[in-house]
Amino acid sequence: MASASLAERLAAIAARTDEVAGADARQLEALKTELLGRKAGALTEVLRALPSLPPDERRAVGQRANQVKRDLEAAIAARQETLASAGRAASVDLTMPARARWRGAIHPVTRVVDEICGIFRELGFARVVGPEAETEWHNFYALNFPADHPAVDAHDTLYLDDGVVLRTHTSPLQIRVMNGYPPPIRVLMPGTCYRKDPFDASHAPAFAQIEGLAVDEGISFVDFKATLTWFAQRFFRPGTRVRFRPSFFPFTEPSAEVDVLCFLCKGGGCRVCKASGWLEILGSGMVHPRILRAMGYDTEEVTGWAFGMGVDRVAMLKYGIDDIRLLFENDLRFLQQFAPPVTPPTLIPGSEGGGHPAPGHEAAGPTEARP
Ligand code: PHE
Q1: Residue pLDDT, tens place only, 215-242
Q2: Which parts of 251-301 are beta strand (E)?
Q3: 306 lines ligand 1 (CB under 6 A)
Q4: pLDDT beyond 60 at 2
Q5: Res 206 pLDDT > 90
Q6: Which of 23, 82, 104, 231 could crosslink 27 through cysteines, CB 3.0-4.6 Å?
């Protein structure tokens, strides 16, 4: 009987609803076509055959068919949603290595400035800073530069205004300190200096210097040599050889340039020391008596020495950097090499529960005791 067979077919279709819950994406598509397909779906065919039933049966079977269709559609939609969210979860790879922790680093030049200041601090030297925009008078004339000295020429110096320059060295700070304080003076003065230089492997138009100045009763050139040699041994390595070469600066007399033995070739001569075996690190000398007198000091009583060290140079020597531009390019791959290793954060005793981790060990100098 046609009506019985339609009801049976409907029951068989309803029974297959269970298959939906276990189907994968492809099986689900196949089931949809097989049961609900518009052309030859099993249920579609049942619905299409309904008009052939006698009216009293048609109503009951019709209702049942619609119910089975709704159930099937709901089961398929639910299964589709389950499969889609499983797919989204699968795209998160929990075994992927974590992103490396970001490590901040002190710039190598800043690091070297701090280290040099730290070494001289042991000898009682204070740290002093001053303006980068400097008067022509402090930068040159107070330092005994004659007006026709080539360094005064606009070729080397960057002028900001009439009588105002970007300082070409840190020596004007000698004048500022001696103008402001009576002897004894022991100061270290780090800072950026500017010259119209090319930007190549060994020059930069902005560079760091550290000025050293000691003025006191009875200071001699021997004090200077001993201090500088002690510094080189501490800063570079024990046994570092230092050479003092006669030189000229308008504000020192006598003047000397200081070289250290090239670490790479040990004096044999190489590309870095330009075959000389030595590397120049600073200019220096005994403070010129004319300058001491101009500052109102009694040159019968006080004498002094001064030096101006090229910090980029010294940093390059210390860390084996062969191009000064690396110090300016802010390439993190370069700078990260100066970052301290990651240490697990430690809690300050007593701050457990919401306290901040202890600051990095770099932050506090050994002399800055914490209570
Ligand atoms: N200011 C000099 C320079 O930049 C270096 C120097 C400093 C020389 C102090 C003598 C004394 O070249």
Answers
A1: 999 999 999 999 999 999 999 888 889 9
A2: 252-261, 278-287
A3: yes
A4: no
A5: yes
A6: 23
CA of 298 to the centre of ligand 1 (A): 23
Give one word for 247, left, alpha or beta, with left for phi > 0 and alpha for psi -120 to 50: beta
Which token pair is 336?
């990260």
Kindly give the distance from the C-alpha atom of residue 310 to the centroid of ligand 1, in angstroms, as a whole number: 9
The residue assigned the tokens 């300058």 is: 291
Which residue's alpha carbon is at the smallest distance from atom 10 of ligand 1? 284
Looking at per-residue confidence, does 364 or 27 come out higher? 27
| pLDDT at residue 370, rounded to an integer | 38
pLDDT score of 85: 86
Residue of 169, 177, 255, 303 with the most ligand 1 atoms within 8 Å of its CB, for mutation: 169
- Check: CB of residue 281 under 8 Å from CB of residue 318: no
Q: What is the mean pLDDT of the chain?
A: 87
Ligand 1: distance of its center to the CA of 115 in Å? 20
**What is the total residue count of the chain?**
371
Whether ligand 1 lies within 6 angstroms of the CB of 283 is answered as yes
Which of 95-104, 118-127, 327-336: highest mean pLDDT?
118-127
Dump strand ranges (E) for 132-184.
Answer: 133-135, 159-161, 164-166
Separation of CA 308 and ligand 1 centre (Å): 4
SS3 content of the chain, % helix, strand, coil (to 5): 40, 20, 40
User: Per-residue pLDDT tens for 276-297?
Assistant: 889 899 999 999 999 999 999 9
Work out the angle at residue 214's Cα, subtended by the Cα atoms of residues 211 and 220, and round it to the nearest 5 degrees. Answer: 120
C-alpha 366 to ligand 1 mean position (Å)? 30
Does the C-beta of 307 come closer than 6 Å to ligand 1? yes
Angstrom distance (rounded) from CA 274 to CA 277: 8
Asked if 25 and 83 touch (Cβ cutoff 8 Å), the reply is yes
Indicate if ligand 1 lies below 6 Å from the C-beta of 304. Answer: no
Asked if 309 contacts 125 with a C-beta cutoff of 8 angstroms, the reply is no
Tokens 């499983």 -> residue: 86
